């Protein structure tokens, strides 16, 4: 999953309360192989591995898995303990009942509830104290995203979300919600935070085991971000068809032929997801370039070739247009 990159907003959100509490955020960034310079570039992105590492080191530094976004710290190990409790469930319905019970027993911070109405199942998430102000968006984003990816992993399925309701105005980074909550209608200014899906999904079987959980928990945050059980959009199907070799990207007609679709029809399907093939190619090149630059194992010239550029100068111009910085600047402060 080296083609995944994370928007700068989420990097800043991880560090926000750490900075307010006096932690050395530059040190946390460098420990995660992220240049502090990137915080000043609005277009910047980091690799999934860098982001997950930053989450991990910041959580441990603060002693708080919710990174200061809730009134009471969430002790390190709580999420792991929850995973160990859920792994013994038989169905998704049992998972969600036990998930809500877990937080009810804790009696602190966020309180999820499972609500059933007709053909729909809803997980509603509210702060424990009703008189508290609405939490900051990242608190809900972190909680909801982790929940959905956990459910997908447990059932080894593309758990389709019907609707995500968020109790805050639409943020500038709302475009990032598309891959976070694939296929879902996103509603802002909602009365509460909710994730809605079909009731029949509660019957899905838990397919993971204690052994697979042990493997998952070796890199839990990274594995959550790059969860392989995402809903298969046409964007993702085209990415899968292209594969990892970007040195010679196929024509759109060739991709349509491999997918056994008419090229015009496939283009409409892709456009319905808000992308053109040109946009998709740029995203792929950008994210693969970020992945390789964060590793420092190959030269900028080699990265240019791997991402389909015949000259390093063309790659450098493109990378700056994508992220606001040059590849060399991106790598600074990482050694």
Annotate the secondary structure layout:
Layout: E1 5-7, H1 8-20, H2 25-31, E2 45-47, H3 48-62, H4 78-86, H5 92-106, E3 110-117, E4 120-127, H6 137-155, E5 163-165, H7 177-180, E6 185-187, E7 193-198, H8 210-216, H9 220-225, H10 234-242, H11 252-258, H12 263-272, H13 277-295, H14 300-306, H15 312-323, H16 327-331
Parallel strand pairs: 5-6
Antiparallel strand pairs: 1-2, 3-4, 4-7, 5-7
Helix pairs in contact: 1-3, 13-14, 14-15
Characteristic terms for this protein:
single chain; 335 residues; alpha+beta; Arc Repressor Mutant, subunit A; five-stranded mixed beta sheet; 49% helix
What does this structure look like?
This protein is α+β, with helices and mostly antiparallel strands and 335 residues long. It has 3 domains: 5-72; 78-203, no CATH class; 234-331, Homeodomain-like (Arc Repressor Mutant, subunit A), CATH 1.10.10. It contains 16 helices and 7 strands. The chain has helices spanning 8-20, 25-31, 48-62, 78-86, 92-106, 137-155, 177-180, 210-216, 220-225, 234-242, 252-258, 263-272, 277-295, 300-306, 312-323, 327-331, and strands spanning 5-7, 45-47, 110-117, 120-127, 163-165, 185-187, 193-198. A 5-stranded mixed beta sheet has the order 3-4-7-5-6. Strands 1-2 form a two-stranded antiparallel ribbon. A hairpin with a 2-residue loop joins strand 3 and strand 4. Helix 13 runs antiparallel to helix 14. It is globular.
């Amino acid at each position: 999953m080296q083609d995944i990159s994370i928007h700068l907003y989420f990097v800043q959100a991880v560090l926000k309360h750490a900075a307010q509490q006096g932690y050395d955020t530059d040190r946390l960034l460098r420990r995660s192989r992220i240049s502090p310079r990137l915080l000043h570039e609005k277009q910047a992105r980091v690799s999934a591995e860098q982001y997950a590492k930053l989450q991990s080191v910041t959580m441990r530094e603060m002693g708080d898995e919710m990174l200061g976004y809730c009134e009471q710290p969430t002790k390190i190990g709580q999420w792991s303990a929850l995973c160990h409790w859920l792994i013994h469930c038989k169905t998704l319905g049992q998972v969600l009942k036990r998930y809500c019970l877990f937080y009810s027993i804790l009696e602190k911070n966020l309180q999820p509830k499972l609500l059933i109405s007709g053909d729909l199942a809803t997980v509603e998430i509210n702060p424990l104290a009703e008189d508290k102000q609405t939490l900051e968006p990242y608190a809900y984003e972190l909680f909801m995203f982790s929940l959905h990816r956990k459910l997908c992993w447990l059932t080894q399925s593309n758990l389709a979300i019907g609707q995500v309701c968020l109790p805050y105005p639409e943020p500038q980074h709302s475009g990032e919600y598309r891959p976070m909550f694939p296929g879902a209608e996103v509603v802002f200014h909602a009365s509460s935070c909710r994730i809605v899906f079909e009731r029949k999904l509660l019957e899905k079987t838990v397919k993971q085991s204690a052994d697979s959980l042990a493997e998952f928990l070796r890199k839990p945050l990274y594995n959550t971000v790059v969860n392989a059980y995402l809903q298969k959009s046409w964007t993702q199907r085209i990415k899968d068809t292209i594969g990892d070799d970007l040195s010679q990207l196929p024509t759109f007609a060739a991709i349509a032929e491999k997918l056994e679709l008419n090229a015009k029809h496939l283009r409409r399907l892709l456009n319905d997801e808000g992308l053109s093939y040109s946009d998709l190619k740029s995203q792929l090149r950008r994210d693969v370039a970020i992945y390789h630059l964060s590793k420092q194992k190959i030269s900028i010239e080699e990265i240019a070739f791997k991402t389909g550029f015949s000259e390093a100068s063309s790659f450098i111009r493109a990378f700056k247009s994508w992220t606001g910085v040059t590849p060399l600047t991106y790598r600074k402060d990482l050694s």
